[in-house]
Design brief:
single chain; 116 residues; mainly alpha; Arc Repressor Mutant, subunit A; 84% helix; 0% strand; elongated; UPF0122; WH-like_DNA-bd_sf
Length: 116
């Protein structure tokens, strides 16, 4: 799985992990967060590689199914993109007018982004 796909899977996991079984959660966590291969996960959990593969695919399908219905990750990406666009525009305005109130707004938005 490509790195970009792992990031997307991680985001889906953050939103929808409560819909997975404990085993599926563990497999996704080891794959995404620990960057283990399915073979390494198999050894870690003491189950066959095919068992890991099946559980992984099933978990991935569950996560994608909920994303298709709820679109939380899609909205998240759109909101982040919109916020970045607003910040760029505010920085251009600040560069032009050097208004400290604008800089204060920029800083507030950036602090908020870091805490989300």
């Amino acid at each position: 799985m490509q790195q970009e796909s792992k990031v997307y899977l991680s985001l889906l996991y953050d939103f929808y992990k409560d819909f997975l079984t404990e085993r599926q959660k563990k497999i996704i966590e080891l794959y995404v967060n620990e960057d283990l291969t399915l073979g390494e996960i198999s050894k870690e959990l003491g189950i066959s590689r095919q068992g890991v593969f099946d559980a992984f695919r099933k978990a991935e399908m569950v996560l994608k199914k909920y994303e298709e219905k709820l679109r939380l990750a899609d909205r998240y990406y759109k909101n982040i993109s919109l916020i970045d666009e607003v910040l760029q525009k505010l920085r251009r305005i600040y560069d032009r007018y050097k208004d400290e109130e604008i800089m204060s707004i920029i800083n507030s938005i950036q602090e908020w982004q870091e805490n989300v």
